[in-house]
Amino acid sequence: MKLRTNRAKQKLANGEIVTIVSSITHPDDIDAVGPLGFDGIWLEGEHGATDPADLGNLTRACDIWGMTSVARINLNEQGLIYRTLDRGAQAIVVPHVNNAAEAQNVVDGGKFTPLGKRGMFTSRQGLGVENYFDQANDESMLIILIEDIIAWENLDEILAVKGIDVVFVAPGDFAASMGHMGDHQHPDVQEKINDALTRIVAAGQHAGALATNENVADYVKIGVRFFMTGAGPWIGSGFNEFVANAEAAK
Question: Active-site residue among 26, 47, 184, 186?
Answer without folding.
Answer: 47
